[in-house]
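Notes from hallway chat w/ T.B., transcribed later so I don't forget. T.B. wanted the structure written out for a chain they're using in a teaching module, and asked if we could keep both sequence and structure tokens in one place. Agreed to drop them here.
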Amino acid sequence: MSVLFRDYAGTPKAFDEVVGAEGVRVAYGSVMRQLAKLDGDEVRARAEYLKSTYLDQGVTFDIGGEERPFPLDIVPRVLLADEWAEVEAGVAQRVRALEAFLADVYGEGRVFRDGVIPRKVIVTSPHYHRVMAGVRPPNGVRCHVAGIDLVRDEVGRFRVLEDNVRVPSGVSYVMTNRRAMFSALPEVTSRHRIRPVEGYPLHLLAALRAAAPSGVSDPTVVVLTPGVYNSAYFEHALLARMMGVELVEGRDLLCHNGRVSIRTTQGLRPVHVIYRRVDDEFLDPAQFRSDSMLGCAGLITAARAGNVTLANAIGNGVADDKLVYTYIPDLIRYYLAEEPLLASVDTWRLEEPAHRAEVLDRLAELVLKPVDGSGGKGIVIGPRATAKQLDALRARIIKDPRGWIAQPVVQLSTVPTMIDGKMAPRHVDLRPFAVNSGDEVYVLPGGLTRVALPEGELIVNSSQGGGSKDTWVLARDGVRGKRRRRRPREVVEGVPLGELGEEKVQQQQAQQQQQQRRTGTGGAPC
């Protein structure tokens, strides 16, 4: 192992993805051998190169109004082909179940009649929008893009932490991380068969075009952004550029007679599909927040009329509700007649009296989450909270039990991360991205690995100061071997024709042709 890893030790109770009880795990064997060929100063220099590259390219995010380069660690996260196959199948299954659930919630409501989930859980969700009831997208897809957050528990098993089917972000970092790592560690990346990620924009564009209104053969697709001050603006601009479509703001759009157009220097041009990166409440001031300057009045009317497709669909946030999360395993069984391929984290529903009583007795042991929270905001980790914080939390739970869930403290898996020039274990999660075209669910091989940079921290979100790693999904055994020398061709020596009769000549020629076909020495020239 490299001198950087000489004193490396994992975190107690957490599954370390690189080093186990018997040494370096299989997935990381080749990576560690290649890194060991570089001295510590060289690795540190390349880590600094990653930082400067992101700063120069403007790959930043916003923390408290300050733009910072997105931290990318020099050590990749590596998943074997078999490990990824499990993740890929589980994420695709979950997306299909969420699609069926959202179609049912805004449609017939069979799931309520059959008693799988109480109607009250849905209608009390702040992200349920009754205005979308009865609206069926042109190809039936509501979750065009999904981000399913996964963690590995103490034994290394993947579990679903939460679902993101509103406006999931972070895929731009998956692509930029890969380019940066290929530049910073060419001698390491070149020795591995890593599944590519740069095809994501084409899959996304194909899914968006497939969602166009009926009768539109060549749809106009746009990306709707809140503007340059949004923390994810870099991603909006990158995706628009890589898909070859317009990046627009709400002021660039005009709704008239149930249709949407974009203002151009040549006049108005029809818009058929809007990949919107604006939250529901700010999308249409005629339906939601009247003071919003980010959307365009009339978008909901156009969507209800079937003249424009909004991706992702408005109202998807009800599936992100962390209380609904507790019902997802039952929803998979109900809609797909399958057992969940990925387990969820054990969760208490605090609106249920028995669960609430148990949790209130164990506040100091559990993690409490607001059901409509995102970005790690509002989470209270009981073992680290003060008595005053727990008392305040207790009062909030009693006042609004529907607004909270509780989970045990999951020791997220760790991966070596460069901290102050040395390698130390840091907790990680994984957000695979799925694109649903209606015909298939494509899961981007890799996804975004987020890292909690402070020691012992379990909240990995970039908005809370987290960083990222390039996620490598290896194809087959994942290692490029040395080029094998080609075996010399077998030469079939003929017999002089003069020594054979005509019949023998024909037999010999037939035998030679058969031998050539077996050895591959005959046929067209190379």
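Follow-up for T.B.: The mean pLDDT is 87. Might be a good example for the class.
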